[in-house]
Amino acid sequence: MLTANSLSIWQYLSAFPAMLAGRRHHRAALRIELAQLFEVEVGRIVLFDSGRAALAALLRLHGVQAGDEVIVPAFTCVVVPNQVPPTGAVLRFVDVGQGSLHFDWLALDAAITPRTRVVVVPHNFGIACEVPTWLREKHRQVRFVDDAAHGFASRCDGQWLGTYHDGAFFSFEYSKNLSGGIGGMALLPAGSALPATALPEVPCRDEWRLAATLKAHLLGARWPLLGRFAMAAVRRLGMVYRSGDGEVRDGEPHPPRAMPLLSAVLLRRQLPTLAAAIAHKQQLAARYQRALAALPQLQQWPAPAGTHWVRYPFALPFAVADKAALARRLSAASGLNIGVWFDDVIHPAGSCRHGYAAGSAPHGERLAASVLNLPMNIALPADVRLERKLARLVAALRTELK
Ligand SMILES: Cc1ncc(COP(=O)(O)O)c(C=O)c1O
Fold first, then answer.
1. Is the C-beta atom of 51 inside 6 A of ligand 1?
2. Residue of the nearest CA to atom 14 in ligand 1?
3. Measured between alpha carbons, how far is 117 from 68 in angstroms, rounded to an integer?
4. What does the similarity note say (predicted)?
5. Digit-coded pLDDT (tens) for 319-363
6. Is 3.90.1150.10 the CATH number for 274-401?
């Protein structure tokens, strides 16, 4: 999968000498720069090794404990529900809306009980939404926490995603809006603070694995064949960095760690070019939207003008038995890297179900069986070659739709 969406090869290479300034320097500087971007106090920015660790911290901040309920969307990544059982709270899945990638507010209202303490609000693919005021006022005991893992620096009605509810968590993993290899951040609600704890550091060997894996992603986004060779070599050397099997398969919670030095430097490198990266992705989205509109059977979703897309989603009008195979066929036909997020209500397929009852979230299940997505990457020019690839994609989709 084509990732490292906003990272240039130069930014990657220049990160290594900059690492000499050390972890404390770069993390402190990154927090200041992020606080300036979001126009919040520095104390509200807390860095972690992952978005999931930031979510766990927010659940602690909001005092989630045994006897409470936490609602998560039934169209999400397994590492989100994974963070709930360790708090002792009951995990509940609530379906996404029929025509949206986030909650149907009336259905969410009906699902909230007096025991509900936190609702994790999805902003899938970077499309930011806002919980209606009436819903927040009706359920004053509930804290609405944004899952902004797909929408770093997305905006909704001119507001930065993550600043207008009760805190947010962001991800800087390879495939997200900004790539740190791994990395996460909590944006705390105004006036709150987390106890200052020294988190364990990511071992040095893992930082090298991150660097090796990222390099293969960067090459793959520019020269697919070279990228494949590079990834095969990284795999052979045992240098691929990815989520632990225990977390994905067995739903184990994540032991939180500090943001790696490499990630902090890479993120600092990407911030000055963020506006240009977002503008480029918005151009790609506009081209995708236009091209796919030739097939009105496909579902597309409206998005605020300030969306920082992580991938561009579209859905087929029927359930696809093997989405991965279809994505491979469409990728081969078009030359575009077609993705399958999410391939299950609890992504990835085969991961821990956390007691999810099949059939209880029909819209999430329909999406999981029908959504594909297109790449967002600064290395993908929005030019005439892209138009040709899109024309081939539309032709291939037309055949699939027959
Ligand atoms: C919707 C969503 N939320 C949260 C996360 C967790 O982010 P991280 O991998 O940084 O823990 C992911 C990760 O892929 C995700 O897709």
1. yes
2. 77
3. 6
4. Belongs to the DegT/DnrJ/EryC1 family.
5. 999 999 999 999 999 999 999 999 999 999 999 999 999 999 999
6. yes
Pocket test for ligand 1, best of 48, 50, 75, 79 (most atoms within 8 A of CB): 79
Q: What is the pLDDT of residue 324?
A: 96
With a 6 A CB cut-off, is 180 part of the ligand 1 pocket? no
Distance 131 CA to ligand 1 centre (A): 21
> CA distances (Å), 317 to each of 157, 161, 293, 328, 372, in order?
30, 30, 14, 19, 12
**Alpha-carbon separation of residue 316 from 63, 301, 327, 355 (angstroms):** 41, 13, 12, 28
Which residue has a Cα nearest atom 3 of ligand 1?
149
Q: What is the pLDDT of residue 1?
A: 57
Q: Is the minimum distance from the CB of 251 to ligand 1 under 6 angstroms?
A: no
* pLDDT tens for each residue of 100-120: 999 999 999 999 999 999 999
| DSSP H helical ranges for 223-361 | 224-236, 245-250, 261-270, 274-292, 323-334
Where does 88-156 have alpha helices with state H?
A: 105-111, 133-138
CATH number of 9-187: 3.40.640.10
How far is CA 378 from each of CA 6, 138, 278, 293, 369, rounded to the nearest angstrom? Answer: 6, 42, 9, 23, 28
Pocket test for ligand 1, best of 76, 77, 102, 266 (most atoms within 8 A of CB): 77
Enumerate the domain spans of the chain.
9-187, 204-254, 274-401
Positions of the chain with pLDDT under 50 = none
Tell me, using a 6 A CB cutoff, whether residue 147 lines ligand 1. yes
Residue 173 near ligand 1, beta carbon < 6 Å: yes
Ligand 1, atom nearest to 54 Cα: 11
Of 129, 171, 179, the one to substitute when testing ligand 1's pocket (max ligand atoms within 8 A of C-beta) is 171
93, 119 Cβ separation under 8 angstroms: no
Per the DSSP assignment, residues forming a β-bridge with 45 are 187
Query: With b meaning 16 or more CB within 10 Å and e meaning fewer, what string describes 307-343?
Result: bbbbbbbbbbeeebeebeebbeebbebbebbbbbbbb
Residue 120 beta carbon below 6 angstroms from any ligand 1 atom: no
CA distance 372 to 311: 9
